[in-house]
Amino acid sequence: MMPLEFYRNIPGKDCSQCGAQIVEQHESYHSECEYCLSKVEE
Questions:
Q1: Which Pfam families match (predicted)?
Q2: Who's near 17: CB < 8 A, 6+ residues apart?
Q3: What range does the domain containing 9 cover?
Q4: pLDDT in tens, the chain (42 residues)
Q5: Phi-psi category of 26—alpha, beta or left, where left has phi over 0 and alpha has psi -120 to 50?
Q6: Whole-number pLDDT of residue 42
Q7: pLDDT recorded at residue 1
Q8: Number of domains in the chain
Q9: CB atoms < 10 A from the CB of 1, how many?
Q10: Alpha-carbon distance 25 to 12, whole Å?
Q11: pLDDT for residue 16
Q12: Are 20 and 35 contacting, i.e. CB atoms less than 8 angstroms apart?
């Protein structure tokens, strides 16, 4: 398997708080979507 093919096959991430699909790089360490992250900061 080529490295690029490996990364294309990584499934999308879902927010651990609300369940929405996170629109970002799948290799990110965040587990919450931008909306839930902004609620935590307030």
A1: YhfH (PF14149)
A2: 32, 33, 36
A3: 3-38
A4: 688 888 888 888 899 999 998 877 656 677 888 889 888 655
A5: alpha
A6: 57
A7: 65
A8: 1
A9: 6
A10: 8
A11: 92
A12: yes
Quick one: 17 exposed, middle or buried, by C-beta within 10 A (0-12, 13-18, 19+)? Answer: middle
DSSP string computed for 16-33: TTT-PEE-S-TT-S--S-
Phi and psi, residue 28, nearest 5°: -65, 155
Q: How far is CA 9 from the centre of its chain?
A: 14
Taking a C-beta distance cutoff of 8 angstroms, is the pair 24, 36 a contact? no
Q: Which own/partner contact pairs does 2-11 have at CB distance under 8 Å and 24+ positions apart?
A: none
Whether this prediction's pTM lies above 0.85 is answered by: no
